[in-house]
């Protein structure tokens, strides 16, 4: 989540995770909140979500379901697809 530094509501992460209550893939979600500012050319704050999926996830039910749930937050969403994610061992 980028551009939330100016937000009054410090519980932005709670709003995100509420969208996934009871969803089977919820435990695989990680949220990073960047303590930064994001503005449009007119100087208006424009916080946005950056969602990263792997190639294997793109186009799947999880991919579409996740984006539909996040759309409920009425924020811009940037979607990145990466080649792979390598989990730590152990």
Describe this structure in words.
By secondary structure, the chain is an alpha+beta fold. The protein is 20% helix and 16% strand. Strands 1-2 form a two-stranded parallel ribbon. The longest helix is centred in the last third of the chain and has 11 residues, at 61-71. 7% of the residues are buried. The model has no long low-confidence stretch (mean pLDDT 85).
What does the overall shape look like?
A: globular
What share of residues are in beta strands?
15-25%
Q: Helices and strands: which structural class? A: alpha+beta
Low-pLDDT windows of residues: none
Average residue pLDDT: 85
Q: What share of the residues lie within helices?
A: 10-25%
- Rounded to an integer in angstroms, the radius of gyration calculated over CA atoms is 14 Å
Distance between the termini: 28 Å
Q: Secondary-structure element order, as H and E? A: HEHE
Number of strand elements? 2
Strands across the major sheet, in which order? 1-2
Outline the secondary-structure elements.
Blueprint: H1 12-18, E1 48-54, H2 61-71, E2 76-82
Parallel strand pairs: 1-2
What would the keywords be for this entry?
about 90 residues, alpha+beta, two-stranded parallel sheet, 2 helices, globular
């Amino acid at each position: 989540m980028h551009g939330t530094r100016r937000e009054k509501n410090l519980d932005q992460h709670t709003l995100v995770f509420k969208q996934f209550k009871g969803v089977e893939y919820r435990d695989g979600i990680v949220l990073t909140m960047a303590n930064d500012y994001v503005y449009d050319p007119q100087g208006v704050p424009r916080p946005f979500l950056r969602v990263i999926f792997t190639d294997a996830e793109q186009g799947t039910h999880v991919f579409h379901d996740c984006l539909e749930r996040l759309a409920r937050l009425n924020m811009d969403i940037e979607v990145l697809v990466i080649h792979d994610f390598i989990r730590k061992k152990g």
